[in-house]
C-alpha cells in the first residue's frame, strides 16, 4: 500500500495522512500594491497554488480597499487590482504572496 506520510497517536489511531498530495512552498514575494508577475520554472512540477497574507488589518476598516486577484499560467503567477482609484481613498492592499505546488 503506497503512503506519503502517516502519523499515529499513542492509541494507534491515524491522525495525519498525506497519501494523495503534499504541498511544497517554492517562495514568496512582497506585494507593494501594484500589479505584477513572477516567473518560477518550478511551478511546472505540480499543481500551483497561491496564499496571500495582507500586511495589516487596518486596510479594511474604511471598506474602500482592493485585494489582489491572482492568475496562474504555466510558470507565471500574475496579480492585478480592480476598482476605481479616485480622490486618494482607494487603497490596494499590500502583503506577502506565498506560492508553491502540490
Low-confidence stretches: none
The percentage of residues in β strands lies in: over 45%
Shape: elongated
Q: How many structural domains does the protein architecture include? A: 1
Mean pLDDT: 87
Q: What structural category arises from helix and sheet content?
A: mainly beta
Termini separation comes to: 21 Å
H/E series: EEEEEEEEEE
Q: In which order are the strands of the major sheet placed?
A: 3-10-5
How large, in whole angstroms, is the Cα Rg?
19 Å
Question: How would you describe this protein?
Answer:
The protein has no helices and ten strands. By secondary structure, it is an all-beta fold. The chain has one domain. The strands form four sheets. A three-stranded antiparallel beta sheet has the order 3-10-5, with no helix packed on it. Strands 4-8-7 form a three-stranded antiparallel beta sheet, with no helix packed on it. The protein has a two-stranded antiparallel ribbon with strand order 1-2. A hairpin with a 2-residue loop joins strand 7 (69-73) and strand 8. The protein is elongated, with a radius of gyration of 19 Å. The two termini are 21 Å apart.
